[in-house]
Amino acid sequence: MIRLRPFNELGGARHGWLDTKHHFSFANYYDPERLHWGELRVWNDDTIAPQTGFPPHSHRDMEIITYVREGAITHQDSLGNKGRTEAGDVQVMSAGTGITHSEYNLEETETRIFQIWIIPNATGLPPTWGSKPFPKGDRAGGFVTLASGDPAEDGALPIQADARVVAATLNDGQEAVYELAPGRKAYLVPAKGRVRVNGVLAEAGDGLAIDDETRLTVSAEADSEVVLVDVV
């Protein structure tokens, strides 16, 4: 079953420097039907104004993945990590026992990100952070794993969860297939473009909540970029 969650029906808020949409209950947006999707707890679609961002704040016991759609985000945290993550790339923060971080758009143009939170396998783990460039050519026409809780997936950023974050870049008319193991769920959002997933149309920013499906055929009806989270 695939359930469409149109972008214009998502929760959200405007804060001047931040325009945010929430696929699941978050902050002042609450919908008892949209608390989470399996272990996927948060999927926020954030547009951050130039020279602004999230000042230092703390998290614990959560896997936080940031996928940059446009522009770049600059990270700094209490572990001493610093980094700038550009469009198409990803950063992962395992909050564990606690971490304080800031995320700023230090660019001259807007930055757009997906902020994805996944519930970890265990609490009280050591906090970590990492980022990695994933050139779009490496995922042209098919899915590549960006972050995974499976240590056997070489090249993916590690997360402490039974989950996988994948992405694909498709030209108009291309298809990509993703195999979903029985009993697992997926949540897919086009970062840009327009796709059909097993016949269900999704425009950029729409969410598709997927369960009881084992083979997902993603067909691009425009040049597209899609992000998918595979969870229990």
Describe this structure in words.
It is a single chain. This protein has 232 residues and is mainly β. Helices cover 0% and strands 55% of the residues. It is built from no helices and 22 strands. The strands form 4 sheets. A 7-stranded mixed sheet has the order 1-20-17-22-15-13-14, with no helix packed on it. It has a 7-stranded antiparallel sheet with strand order 2-3-4-11-6-9-12, with no helix packed on it. The chain has a 4-stranded antiparallel sheet with strand order 5-10-7-8, with no helix packed on it. A hairpin with a 4-residue loop joins strand 7 and strand 8. It is globular. The mean pLDDT is 96.
What can be said about this structure in brief?
This is Pirin family protein. The chain is mainly beta and 232 residues long. It has strands spanning 2-5, 11-14, 18-22, 40-48, 52-59, 63-70, 72-77, 82-86, 90-94, 99-105, 111-118, 128-132, 144-148, 157-158, 163-170, 175-179, 185-192, 194-197, 200-203, 207-210, 215-220, 224-231.
